[in-house]
Amino acid sequence: MNVLRLRCEYQTNPLGIDGDRPRLSWQLVSTQRGTRQSAYRVEVSLRKNGSADLWDSGKIKSDQSVHVVYAGQKLKPGQRAWWRVTVWDEAGKPATSTETAWWELGLPGVDWEAEWIGSPIVGGKKAATPAPHLRKEFTLPKKRIVHARLYATALGVYEAVLNGQPVGDEVFAPGWTDYAQRVQYQTFDVRAQLTPGVNCLGAILGDGWYCGYVGEAGHRETYGEQSWFKARLVVEFADGSTQVVVTNDQWRTASGPILAADFLMGEIYDARRELTGWAVVGYDASTWLSVRINTALPPLLVARLNPPIRRILEIKSISQRKYAKGWTKQNWIFDLGQNMVGRVRLKAHGAAGCTVVLRHAEILKPDGTPYYDNLRSAAATDSYTFKGDGIETFEPRFTFHGFRYVEVEGLEGEPLPDAVTGIVLHSDTPPTGKFHCSDPLVNQLQHNIEWGQRGNFLEVPTDCPQRDERLGWTGDAQVFCRTAAFNMNVATFFTKWLQDMRDAQGADGAVPSYMPTAHGRGGDGGPAWADAAVIVPWTMYQCYGDRRILEEQYPAVVRFIDFIKAQSKNSIRCHPATKCHAFGDWLSQDGTGTPHEIIGTAFFAHSADLASQMADVLGKAADAKRFATLAGKVRLAFTRRYLTGANFLFSGTQTACVLALHFQLIPDSARADVAAQLVRDIQKRGLRLSTGFVGTPYLNHVLTETGHLDVAYSLLFQKKWPSWLYAVTQGATTIWERWDGWTHDKGFQNPLMNSFNHYAYGAIGDWLYASVAGLGSDPVKSGYKRLVFRPHPGGGLTHARAKLETMYGKVESAWKVRLGGKQTEYVFTVPPNTTARAELICVSKSKVKHGTGVVQLARRSDRVVLELKPGKHQIIVG
Ligand code: BGC
Fold it and tell me: How much of the chain, in percent, has pLDDT values that exceed 70?
């Protein structure tokens, strides 16, 4: 047995975190079956390989190997703690980690003694200004530098430069928060970039979310009038002395080649105005202006919590062509083959002063020209003016677009072979899962789900990445977060967004429809949107076993439940006699759709139920009881009001039935009838769904659980809209916002709301992983401590496989149909230090063959239940 993959707060060796009680996790790796941890000991030192001077947990008899809370001495700001762990296996044999593992504290509670600095040039609500360059030269003594950290942040977005070299590889730092309340800072190890003697520190500032266009507001200056930069550089020398350099009135500023840069509008770059060598010592900055200082800025500085945005991938264009004959333009259209989010790197040549313009579109119109209408007011246009210096390369710095096609105007002659490359940007959430099956269209659907996630997990979970919206909509995040946690590790991504949510929550407990809030928009997000306050933390707990997410969110949950309780009448949320904001079953195909009060009351019961479970996990027995009683009361109210004596659900929409069944709102005796009501509606529509954002995520789960697996598979394989595969058959490479974003008979849907990259309907991914392939976690022993494999072969698929990198290691659940359907072969991988149960479908005469480490727990006519030890298992049923 080895002890590997030491993580602190989900990260390998995090630099610059906040908090006195970081959590430590590790994995056991073993070739033996049944490996389990019987005890651990964590030793933490101020020195590498040092004695446990900060903390020695002692030998703790426990199988806990994730989220072990550090309980040693409090670190000082900037201090690093080195740690190792010894693990005893089930036979009492120890193994000690050999990886270098540490974490380093940021600057919690430290006064940076630095000013917010910016340009004296200020724009207006509609008038952008050039991106300010800021610089400062400083002298370090001629002593050996042993340690150097740059702590930096901005109101706006920034890129720091030290002695001409970029600092770090983050894009759009410091990220997006409600800047009136808090802003994140980054910590960089810059020792290798410094030299004794004179050095130069610089930064370029962009508008970003702080002062650019955000959402539908139609103007700039969302949080403030101009961007600001703040930094503290701490350098330590071999003799123990230190020197600190901060942002202050000694800095100088000038405008450079970025004449304007905005997330929605794009970037305007004039290469003739480049400030060559501006961040290198000796540059003549005599014409540069003094910086403006702002002492009135309030926000709390907090260490970065979520993964940074990075350049994740590059995509080469798959084709290029000139506008066809008969068209008036002389432009080129490049196809990247994938609807992506980021920007383009352009390589081209041109005479000094000539400009190329790049416009970005997700899709082409039937006549082959780019479709821009759905961008609404987002210009999504970059331009580059040549300096006339041979082949020039341009990648905008402070903008991003959602696109597959790039229209380029103003190229001289034929494009170079690598004229256009797509640079994919997103939050660097590590990939964790893969789903694959025997149907290529379903595999393309999984691909589209992953790309919907890439495109919209950019700092916060956004609805869409292309039009003038790109907001952290709660409803969308709530429906997709479970799927997201299969595809990538999104624990810290959502931890940070939940902080944004708490910053946005009203004094009355209301949770708004998106966050970070902007333009002062608060209020109640309404059913299925605001309920993200409960569903998202609970889902993260299920996926990562992260109790702290619950602890931190719990007070907000209590206030939210009390808010909806107060807002309801006779336990009916959105009762017609009350005032209630609601989006309904957004974009459903049900005409007037499912009444708001049905959705409201369903989510009221569900949220109260989850709150009760949270309270239980947190050891708050009285609250657990209070919320359970409340949930029961709401369920009863739901049944009384919407279920007839003949077990027929009022409204009868698919979503109403799905919610009643999935949230267990109606008595068991009524479930079969309501499920039949749901199936009748699906059949009546030619085996098609009618659900919108609210009902869709649970639809196939409900059908599977109520014995209608065949109907669930029919919906999965349906190719006529509304269906998941319709868009796939139309060549989609991401998930569309609407089932009918484009159809042969109607053409494009309403351009005011027609995104081709909206992840919400991608929530079917959860069903693919958890039900088709059967990879799941026990809700009580969460975070895959106890695995539950419940595969559902069917739908004509001949194989399916899901893989997931969990906190405990790799999990796999796969099946293959053999001998023309007479047998099914299953493969399960169970990581060390977990337990697993597999529930396999069979018929009464089926034989179950397996190797060692498998114990049969139960056998029914249609199902066999097995207990699996850690290790890889092959099981044949048939
Ligand atoms: C967004 C949605 C969001 C909705 C609220 C839209 O404009 O794109 O995805 O949830 O507003 O209903």
Answer: 99
Decide: 82 and 75 in contact? Cβ < 8 Å: no
In tens, the pLDDT along 556-604 reads 999 999 999 999 999 999 999 999 999 999 999 887 789 999 999 999 9
**Are 410 and 354 within 8 A, CB to CB?**
yes
Cβ of 736 less than 6 Å from ligand 1: no
> How many Cα atoms occupy the beta-carbon half-sphere of 233 within 13 Å?
26
Ligand 1 near 332 CB (within 6 A): no
Using DSSP bridges, classify how beta strands 747-748 and 871-877 pair: parallel, antiparallel or unpaired.
unpaired
> Do 133 and 206 contact (CB within 8 A), yes or no?
no
Segment 304-323, tens digit of pLDDT: 999 999 999 999 998 888 87
For ligand 1, atom 2, name the residue with the nearest CA.
Answer: 463
Give the position, in ligand 1's atom list, of the atom nearest the Cα of 513: 5
Residue 591: what pLDDT? 72
- Tell me the per-residue pLDDT of 33-49, one tens digit each, with 9 for 90 and over: 999 999 999 999 999 99
Probe target for ligand 1 pocket from 377, 476, 514, with the most ligand atoms within 8 Å of CB? 476
Per-position DSSP letters for 589-624, written without gaps between them: SSTT-S-HHHHHHHHHHHHHHHHHHHHHHTT-HHHH
CA distance 57 to 90: 20
Burial group, residue 746, by CB count within 10 angstroms (0-12, 13-18, 19+): exposed
- Look up residue 734 and give its amino acid: T
Which residue's alpha carbon is at the smallest distance from atom 4 of ligand 1? 473
pLDDT of residue 650: 87
The residue behind tokens 């657990």 is: 624
Residues 6 or more apart from 62 whose CB is under 8 A from it? 37, 39, 40
Q: With a 6 A CB cut-off, is 471 part of the ligand 1 pocket?
A: no
Burial of 335 (0-12, 13-18, 19+ CB in 10 A): middle
Locate the ligand 1 atom nearest the alpha carbon of residue 583 and give its number: 12
Distance 463 CA to ligand 1 centre (A): 7
Query: DSSP state, 370?
Result: B
Q: Catalogue the active-site residues.
A: 469, 737
The DSSP secondary structure of 224-259, one letter per residue, reads -SS-EEEEEEEEEETTS-EEEEE-STT-EEEE-SEE
Q: Considering the entire predicted model, what is its pTM?
A: 0.97
Q: How far is 441 from 562, CA to CA, in rounded Å?
A: 45
Owner of token pair 């996630």: 453
- Is the pLDDT reported for residue 518 higher than 80? no
- Residue whose CB lies within 8 A of the most ligand 1 atoms, among 462, 524, 581, 583, for a mutation test: 583
- Taking the centre of ligand 1 as the mean of its atom positions, its distance from the CA of residue 470, in whole angstroms, is 10
Mutate to test the pocket of ligand 1, among 473, 693, 757 (most ligand atoms within 8 A of CB): 473
Confidence of residue 521 (pLDDT cuts 50, 70, 90): low
Determine whether the shortest distance from the Cβ of 439 to ligand 1 is under 6 A. no
Token pair of 712 as six digits? 């669930």
Specify whether the CB–CB gap between 426 and 458 falls below 8 A.
Answer: yes
E strand or H helix at 146, and its extent? strand 145-155
> Residue 463: CB within 6 Å of ligand 1?
yes
* Cβ proximity of 136 and 202 under 8 Å: yes
Among residues 700, 703, 739, 698, the alpha carbon closest in space to that of 722 is found at 739
CB of 514 sitting under 6 A from ligand 1: no
pLDDT value for 649: 84
Q: Which two tokens stand for residue 738?
A: 């609407």
What average pLDDT does the chain have? Answer: 96
* Helix, strand, or coil (residue 471): coil
pLDDT in tens, 414-460: 999 999 999 999 999 999 999 999 999 999 999 999 999 999 999 99
Q: What is the per-residue pLDDT for 519?
A: 61
Torsion angles phi and psi, residue 484, rounded to 5: -55, -40
- 755 CA: nearest ligand 1 atom: 8
